[in-house]
Design goal:
- The structure is a single chain.
- The protein has no helices and 12 strands.
- 26% of the residues are buried.
- It is mainly beta.
- The protein is 0% helix and 42% strand.
- The strands form 3 sheets. It has a 5-stranded antiparallel beta sheet, with no helix packed on it.
- It has one domain: Jelly Rolls (Sandwich).
């Protein structure tokens, strides 16, 4: 795990005509305010990486498909400096991933069909608030092609 990153198990409430999938409540300990919510899709095998927000807190939920998230901590004052953390979220591992500012994050589509995430952030999107690195040529050195097992 990485200091400041939280995993929160979420409820799926089955219903005769469809299910209810919880995402986030204002009373949750990791809730840090509301800025915006958006959906993002990622094709099987596609990688969207690397991004580090300087202010924004991410709350990532995968209601459809299967997505592997990878985080890297390069905060020199962190107890987890240099650590990499991987987690695959899906309906069968239905949790909310909360990522604090200053953590590098990327994700890869694993599901065969449609892979979609919901991100609920604490501030509205600001392109000048984030840093980026190329998914494959960067200072992190993570191998996106390796097996999860």
């Amino acid at each position: 795990m990485i200091e400041g990153v939280f995993l929160t198990p979420l409820r799926i409430i089955p219903g005769e005509n469809g299910d209810v999938l919880h995402a986030i409540k204002a009373t949750d300990p990791s809730f840090a305010g509301f800025g915006e919510a958006y959906f993002s899709t990622v094709n099987k095998g596609a990688v969207k990486a690397w991004k580090r927000h300087r202010i924004m807190i991410l709350n990532l939920i995968v209601p459809v498909g299967e997505i592997k998230f990878v985080m890297y901590d390069d905060r020199k004052d962190s107890s987890t400096f240099g650590n990499i953390f991987e987690i695959t979220l899906s309906r069968s591992n239905y949790q909310r991933l909360t990522v604090p500012p200053m953590i590098w994050m990327g994700f890869k589509g694993l599901g065969k069909g449609f892979n979609m995430l919901l991100n609920v952030t604490n501030i509205p999107h600001d392109p000048d608030e984030a840093d980026r690195q190329d998914a494959f040529e960067n200072d992190i050195g993570y191998d996106w092609e390796k097996d999860l097992t």
